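dumping the sequnces here before i forget
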Amino acid sequence: MGGAILAYLAKRITPMLSSIVSFLAISSAAVVFFTMTSSTDVVTVSVRNFTLQFGLNAYSWVFAAMVMGISALVSLYNIAYMSGKDRLGYFNLNFTLAIMSMMGIVFANDWISFFIFWEIMTWSSFLIVVYNGIDEGKIGTKYMIFSAVGGYAMLMAIVITNSQIDSFLIADLINAYPTFGHGMQAMIGILFLIGFSVKAAVMPLHVWAPRAYSDSPMSFTAIFSGLLSKMGIFGMAIMFISVFSKASIGDTFIYSQVIAWLGGVTAVMATFYAVIQKDAKRLLAYSSIAQLGYIVTGLAIGTKLSVMSALFLAVIHALYKGILFMAVGAVERQAGSTNLEQLGALIRKMPWTFFSALIAAIALAGIPPLGGFVGKWMLYESMITSTNPSHLFLVILIFLSSTAAFLYVYRLLFGLFLGQEEPEWDHVKEAPAPMVIPMVLMALTLILLGYAPGLLFEPIANGMEFLGFENVGWQMSSLSNIWGDTVDMQYVWGSVVTLFVLGAIFITIKNRKSTRYVTTKDIHTSGEIPEAHENLTYAVDFYKPFERAIEPVMRKTMDFYYNHFGNGLESLFGFVRKIYTGNGQTYAMYVVIFLVILLLIGEQIFK
Amino acid sequence: MEDILKLLGGAAATMLLAFVVGATYGGLVRKIIARTQNRVGPPWYQNFVDISKLYMKDTAVHHGVMQHIGPAFAITASVTVLMFVPVLREGGWFPWFENLNFKGDIIFLIYMMVFGSLGMALGIGQTGNPNASIGVSRGLSMMVGYEIPFVLSLVSVMVQTHTTSITGLMEWQTQNGWLMFEAPFAFITMLLAILGMFHYAPFDIAHAPSEIASGPPSEFGGKYLAMMMTSGSIFAFAKLVFLVDVFMNGASNLVMLVVKTLLLYMVPVLYGAVSPRYRTEQAIRYLWGWPVFFGIIALIYSIYI
Amino acid sequence: MVVSPVHFIAVPLLAAFLMPILAKVNKNLLRIVPGIVLTYLGYVSVVLMNRVATEGTIIEVLAGWSAPWGINLVYTPFTGFLATLMIAMSFLIWLYSFKFKKVDDEPALKYFILQLMLTTGSVGLVLTGDIFNFFVFMEIIALSSYALTAFYRDRNGAEAAFKYLLIGAFASTLFLLAIVLLYSQVGTLNMAEISVRMHDVPTSMKVSILVLFLVGIGIEAEMFPLNGWAPDAYSQAPSPVGVAFAALVVKAGVYGLVRITYTLFGIEGSGIGPFLIIMGGITLVMAEITALKQTSLKRMLAYSSIGQMGFVLIAFGIGTHEAVFGAIFLMFNHAIIKGLLFMSGSYLVYNTPNKEIKYLSGYGMKMPVISLFFSLGALAIVGLPPFAGFWSKLYILLAAADGALYGLIALILVVSIIEIVYYFRVVGRLYFGKPAEGSIMRKPTVGGMIAMSILAIAILVVGFYPDIITGYIDAAASSILNTDEYIKNALGAVNELTPVENIIQ
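..and the predicted 3d for all of it:
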């Protein structure tokens, strides 16, 4: 394992001059990873008075496998997506660095290497966020500020931990945490949670995410939203499950309640924002935030079922959001726009992209029989069967969010692929094979996971046992809650697929000869026949009524408060800066005043 | 082998039953509404006539593959929901009846119920008809409205009975009495939710026949419309049976089933017959008002009972 | 030839004085000679570093002059480390400025002479073992700095130099006053000796001396509110001089502060530690906030430099081995990183009006290598791993955490966020702004490229493998903390030659 890691590092740090090299590096790393998974070597690198440890455990295997598998596919997509763009070397270097650093994070056994890779991930992704150069000052800076707040909160927690237990090992913190005083427990806990929440885009630390996700190149956003944000989840799970649960305050740990509710509120608000977006990328960005809200909630509830659902959703979300971002990227590349109000009817031009996006959308909406449903089901059941009444109200928030998710899912598919065919988009062709293949493969994975979610339960259950749960039960294709109620995915999958196939066959065979395709201009419009250039698609302000209904909660955004806070600071800083007047006499006066003051109070200060 | 035949036979029989009863209800509703409005109205079997006619017609056009398979999505959802809902309580007079309920539960059903709408909506989207898309927008928005009280009601029932499966609920009711009385607030919430759910006035803006030419199905004809109507009939019946199972302990024979479902069905129908139409945002706000209030009371009730 | 610390001072001074003559012989010599001198000194310092590592502190007393009047050089791991760093940086600055004023030899001659003087002064200040020579070297630095600041002979340069001179005069006066008072009390100028006799000085007198020293040297160390001169000087002086300020002058100032507080007065229980932490904290906050509001790149870098020095003061104020280690590490990092930033930054703003940041849009495309260097420096100076700056920040934070100074940690980290904001604003603009039309880029010289590459490589190497340097820094930290050892070594050597005790009595 150790040699492998070092090989990855060495291989990937070298500047990649083309996407192909980057793909080869990532996929070969993936191959190396998947072929030597069972080894449990620990690599140590010593730096002065402490050692950095890298190793793999059952828990990090889940995330490592997810990162490696998906980024290998996305980097394949990346070859075609980025072809013909500027500064490929720059982009691919950061792209590869970001993926490498995620592997570093999951391999890290101690907080220092965790933090090092965390920060590499942050700045490499920052450099990609600003790559497109849209409004670079605002978005990049916002992303960097929030990441820095999170990263430094984590760093503070790390150094304080070290001062308490004189060790950086994650395992040592887990063991030592119960022995800390309450104040210390709370401080370390909160600081770590802030650090992880920023990456997981939990409200109110999410404001960087929408623009950062939507303005990066899509091949990276697939990674950004799918995997990078999961690093926050990765850390959070360690905190919630291994660290907090062993503490003296144990189950009543108030922060997990707070975080659970924050996750719920995040899910609802981000979903509402996603519904009213006009741009596919922005829509998906908000949707990512919302989905992360579920995962955070699942982790914070902290029962076996909810944690399993959170980790399951984490993987599934990486898959379907990866597909959706890639699909939108494909549309962007082929059609040159991602505006939901202008695009339309690409289904006949980009059928494979549509197929993948459809499967991903169904999974996102949590509709059976795909993998997304499995995760959602476990999440709901874990909340309904929870002994804590607050979770029962939380379930309503989560439900509201996932019902409203149907709206934006439909809007996305409708806006891009359906509606009337316009001559404007006649030139659009299906995306090249390197872009389509990863999407279709991931879509098929989603279908497979609907049939046999146990494929994913197994590593997750192992990981959870590593984190501290005992006897995490799972079945290959059957879900069950603690009240003993079950859903058998094989039956569900079987009946849905059978009925669908039967229905489709029936409807196709009947009158097959006489039914023909006509264009979408040839429609029932009360006698009027629209001309080719007339676009009747109802796409502008698609959910205006819904917008009106939810208007009271949308008036003030979090951004608004942050901007005010920022402006306040700006003027304060402007005032402070006036101390440096640029006048030599003033400076001389400062010296004299300082001298006099020191002479006067010197004896009190210096003993 | 025999088991599978029994299963398939039972499934087919259930489907037939659902279709017949559902379509009949549809006819009755048309009649009732007509009478309320002082019209004569079509005969009760009008829906059968319509559907047969549509099946027999040749279908000339479609606008693409998504529209083509849209109705298949709808029928899949309806039949799957039906398959996972126990139509009659065990030990009923239907000797070879079986259902799949033990393999699914309420959360699964809630999700399955939207499967069809979403699939249909995609099919409708491809037609490019503005009226249809407007209908979809309204329908989906309103779905967010009524799902919340609907789920609140079901969650409080599940919490109260400590089970999430329908058979579990029915066993509980056999021992403790109908949930309609045991969980009164949940039942009230449900009644309010199904007003929206069945899309009768005042919540019929999605279809709004006089305004947007029936909205969603406006571009569908022939076999497509026939399939949609079939699916709609089955779905209406499945939903009613589901509600009867949850709140009235199901039914042990067909007569009781018909009585109970019809009673429940009359609530939205009669209310709708005398109501004007809400605009979408009004509908959503209405559904997030009193129904949610009762839902929360129901939840509190179920926690502390 | 036997190498000894005295070469550090004698050789460059000699070279500086000979340069006008040499320049007459061949005008290329004036560019080559400093390089030769600095290469030789580099060799000397490497040899001495190794010797110190094996044999311990080296004391050099200039023959014929007895302490306390003689020039007494104390080469400890700490002073040796700093001297080596300064020599190395001077060498890189020489490389960078090799073609400086190519067409005009007269200013070039002045420039190279002054640079050599600056190096001499800084290294001498670090190495000297007695307080009066300390003052002398401080004056050498100050004088050459004034001249270099006013180098361009324009209005701004003159103004900056005047401000510097004004404040610098205060520094000299106060420092001299402190020395006089000190001498009147302890009767010696040898720092080790002073340290021994400090116990007998009455408290009020001790405090007065301390305050005078603090203010005097605090000006050179850019401590708030004594640092008003710095931004002007940095931004108006020729760009290599900015590097020299950041890498040599400030370091010398901080060294002086540390030597005086640690060795002369003793840091433990004296209240100096908290004082340094507080002043460092204020310096840090004020400087970073001001840097955020700057529109000129060089001024921004200058304020950032001040901020970093505040950070160093905080670390020295904490005073544990870990903290001092972090502080020295940070001094090292600041020298190489800020060197890189100033070097690449001056190329970036070479042709922009007022050196404003807002004209830098899209330079990443036009000057890719320089922009890359600048970005690397920016990432490193804000302390992002895996670059050099991270480790020093980490060690200082660890030391603060060990001292349970949680508020301080939070302050440092908040300030770091401000730092990130203004550096990343520039980096973002470099790469992703719309390129402005028609601006002429200045092609970097070969020497400049080599110098910057060396610094960049150093940043990366130290970032990935800090152990390459930590051994030296550890030794340096032990040496500055262990006052007794210093006294024993310094006095021991002195006693062998001249019995100080006898002279004083």
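The longest strand of chain C covers residues 58-61.
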